[in-house]
Amino acid sequence: GAGVSQSPRYKVAKRGQDVALRCDPISGHVSLFWYQQALGQGPEFLTYFQNEAQLDKSGLPSDRFFAERPEGSVSTLKIQRTQQEDSAVYLCASSTGRHSYEQYFGPGTRLTVT
Amino acid sequence: GENVEQHPSTLSVQEGDSAVIKCTYSDSASNYFPWYKQELGKRPQLIIDIRSNVGEKKDQRIAVTLNKTAKHFSLHITETQPEDSAVYFCAASMIFGGTSYGKLTFGQGTILTVHP
Predict the structure, then answer these.
(1) pLDDT (0 to 100) of residue A99
(2) Which chain B residue lies closest to A110 (C-alpha atoms)?
(3) Å between A16 CA and nearest CA of chain B
(4) Which of A101, A102, A105, A110 to mutate: most B Cβ within 10 Å?
């Protein structure tokens, strides 16, 4: 079956531009996570959705970051007024939400802010 | 919050040797510890995980051990092969009840190189 997909795979933005990153989780997966992975580092948690409810956004670095999952499937991570420090790979992961702990990761979106 | 430390940052071994990567965590409430393998430019993929009610788990050439008292866990790869070369991440999470909500806190990663 299809895994987690993300688009675009690569995004170059000029500083100050807004960007939107999309995540298509595995069909039927209740839980969806966003992580940020800086070069040479481990992923860091940004936010978590259970269906359409955003239950934890404690990892979002600033109010420029916003995530949504309005119908409980596809999710979008939006970054407003991008800064150079936003350059990273943004990973999405989903899990069944029921008696399974494994998170399945997407390929990520590499964001470069120039 | 949880903090995970991972060592070593790089590890170079000869094909056929064993490799050991160690992690420590800070939050005694953490109860789920997965290990992910990430090849260059690819997505992280789960290779093995362990829950806090188990001290050791093995899957072919890969094993993980957990010491809850000392709050550390380790990945052991035996009979390494060149295709094992990748970045390995440990992680810790706190799982509630029967749900899978548990944000992962990752270590910094270990670059494993297996020389033929």
Answers:
(1) 64
(2) B41
(3) 26
(4) A101
How far apart, in whole angstroms, are the C-alpha atoms of residue A93 and residue B34?
14
d(CA A20, CA A7): 9
What pairing do the DSSP bridges indicate for beta strands B86-92 and B62-67?
Answer: unpaired
3-state secondary structure of A114: coil
Q: What is the rounded distance in angstroms from the CA atom of residue B96 to the CA atom of residue B89?
A: 23
Yes or no, beta carbons of A102 and B46 under 8 Å apart: yes
State the pLDDT confidence band at B101, using cuts at 50, 70 and 90: low
Task: Select from A30, A42, A101 the Cβ nearest to the Cβ of B109.
Answer: A42
Query: For B56-94, how does the pLDDT look when each residue is reduced to its tens digit (9 = 90+)?
Result: 999 999 999 999 999 999 999 999 999 999 999 999 998
Model confidence pLDDT, tens digit, residues A10-19: 999 999 999 9
Q: Are A45 and B32 within 8 A, CB to CB?
A: no
Rounded distance between C-alpha atoms, residue B111 and residue A5, angstroms: 25
CB A56 within 8 A of CB A65: no
Give the C-alpha separation, B91 to A95, whole Å.
Answer: 16
**A110 vs A91: CA distance, rounded Å:** 9
Comparing C-alpha atoms, which of B65, B67, B15 is closest to residue B35? B65
